[in-house]
Amino acid sequence: METTTPLLAVDVSARYADGHDVLRRVRVTVERGEILGLVGQSGSGKSTLALAILGLLTAKSGKIAGSVQLMGRELMGLRPREMRELRGREIALVLQSPLSALNPALTIGAQLREAWMAHDPEKQHWLKQAREGLRSVSLPDTDDFLARRPSQISVGQGQRVLIAMATMHRPALLIADEPTSALDMITQAEILELFAKLNQAYGMAILYISHDLASVSTICHRIAILHDGEIVESGKTEELFRAARHPYTQQLLSSCPHILAEPPKEEDMDENLWPTAPAGVLQGALHSHTYHDCGR
After folding, report:
1. C-alpha to C-alpha distance for 116 and 88, rounded to whole angstroms
2. How many helices and strands (H and E) does the chain possess?
3. What are the residues whose beta carbons fall under 8 Å from the beta carbon of 209, sequence distance 6 or more?
4. What span, in angstroms and rounded, lies between the C-alpha atoms of 243 and 245?
5. Helix spans in 5-92 (H)
6. pTM of the full predicted structure?
7. Which one of 3.40.50.300, 3.40.630.30, 3.30.70.260, 3.40.50.1000 gives the CATH number of domain 33-54+79-90+172-291?
């Protein structure tokens, strides 16, 4: 029988200089066009896994063993130059805080230009791509907005700028590391909708990392639960929420009783709002006022 190679296949262990094992044989796969939610509490190793996939763990004095494959290509052992060619073009990262991720001294336009020219040295292309990128995340593409600095835009706009920068080259995989944790609940819902639309429009797979089960259940097709450096449970979103097996998953669910409600019928789902949400996504997760209640 013919098998399909996953977009991303990870099987890694990781530790830091103090000898502490952060990840222990963590196995994760992401299929093409899929949104996979990686859920775990602070310190469980979620961000370490993101750094390992991106080849950036050594910059944090970390050591990694195992395998990271993108579209069947082994990334472990690639030279730094080869990884730089991949980051931003094939794999991109959105961090949780635009205030720390954006350079306060540079205009929005200058930062979009740098993001584009890192992989396309043709200067004449950057402005067209920058305007297109801003429109794709529902931001103004005007000269005035491009001339602003991070201090002159809202936190929500800053997060959209980060997403525009990360998706300019249409990467096959977008890693979103706690992308809504610094946002108010209304802006959280807007950013979740944006991820769903990008996934649908470009077929972009997303590894969505969060401590918040409610937001994860809103857009993710599958969920993997990371606890104390290990994947303790994974499965389709609806199945995991209906019949969680591991005690830690059950504990997480018990802290968010509203997402255990009866799921809506597929025909009742608003496809314009959640264009890629899995059929039967849980009822409580659709109410943005509950996002801040879970997983903290």
Report:
1. 9
2. 11, 10
3. 37, 38, 46, 47, 49, 50, 175, 176, 177, 178
4. 6
5. 46-54, 80-86
6. 0.86
7. 3.40.50.300
296: Cβ contacts below 8 Å, ≥ 6 apart: 211, 212
**Helical H runs in 137-236?**
143-146, 155-167, 185-202, 213-219
Q: What is the dihedral of CA 195, 169, 207, 21, to 10 degrees?
A: -140
**Phi/psi at 24 (nearest 5 deg)?**
-125, 105
User: Which among 111, 227, 200 is positioned nearest to 158, based on CA atoms?
Assistant: 111
Query: In 5-61, which residue ranges form alpha helices assigned H by DSSP?
Result: 46-54
Listed in order, the ranges of the chain carrying CATH 3.40.50.300 are 33-54+79-90+172-291
Measured distance CA(222)–CA(236) in Å, rounded: 4
What does the pLDDT read at residue 227?
A: 94
Q: Which amino acid is at 22?
A: V
What is the CA angle 286-292-296, rounded to 5? 125
Residue found under tokens 């918040």: 212
- Statement: residue 36 has pLDDT above 50: yes
Q: How far is C-alpha 256 from the geometric centre of its chain's CA atoms?
A: 22
Give the pLDDT score at 134: 97
pLDDT, one tens digit per residue, over 252-280 is 888 776 665 444 444 444 444 333 444 33
List CB contacts of 191: < 8 A, sequence separation 6 or more: 156, 159, 160, 163, 179, 180, 183
